[in-house]
């Protein structure tokens, strides 16, 4: 289990036990010492609040026994838990096993351009193809090489080429040129039909610059 997964598990335990108790606090008898140490670490990040002397006195009166330690989530901890439970989950094994997909690794500037492209889907006459927005949303980053990893169908790769062509036409050709060199997919409006689509105007196998102005 990764560090962030352990942290979420602790936050979830605190939230559940606090709700069960009715007063929001998780008490010393409800967590083992190692888990209490994890809570102390989360306090340093602002995600958890430890009970003050006054809080412990009130809890002791409610419990009818001395309460020496108690913790509850801060608003930041509650938000972190809510986000963590809703964040996209990538299933690498099933995606990588799909025979119609290719691993594509994008540098940060390419990924930024692609996010703009999928974000404009409702405004574009030639929108991103189905599934591309989901691939962008769930992409993982290899921080060692600073590349975003996506698994794309051929149609999605052609749609990426169109998005990077738009990026080229409005300022920077480097991202589209790199994509063409590495994956051999380049968009050119000269190859688009009368009713263009991002896929229809992209060519595979070339590293040329026919869309350049």
Write the layout of secondary structure elements.
Layout (H helix, E strand, L loop, with lengths): L2 H19 L4 E2 L5 H12 L3 E3 L2 H11 L6 E4 L1 H12 L5 H6 L4 E5 L1 H12 L12 H6 L2 E3 L4 E6 L1 H16 L4 H10 L1 E3 L14 E3 L9
Antiparallel strand pairs: 1-3, 2-3, 4-6, 5-6, 7-8
Question: Describe it for me?
Answer:
The protein contains nine helices and eight strands. By secondary structure, it is of the alpha+beta class. The strands form three sheets. Strands 1-3-2 form a three-stranded antiparallel sheet. Helix 1 packs across helix 4 (75-86), helix 6 (108-119) packs across helix 8 (154-169) and helix 8 (154-169) packs antiparallel against helix 9 (174-183). Residues 206-213 have low confidence and may be disordered. A hairpin with a 4-residue loop joins strand 5 and strand 6. The relative contact order is 0.10. It is 49% helix and 14% strand.
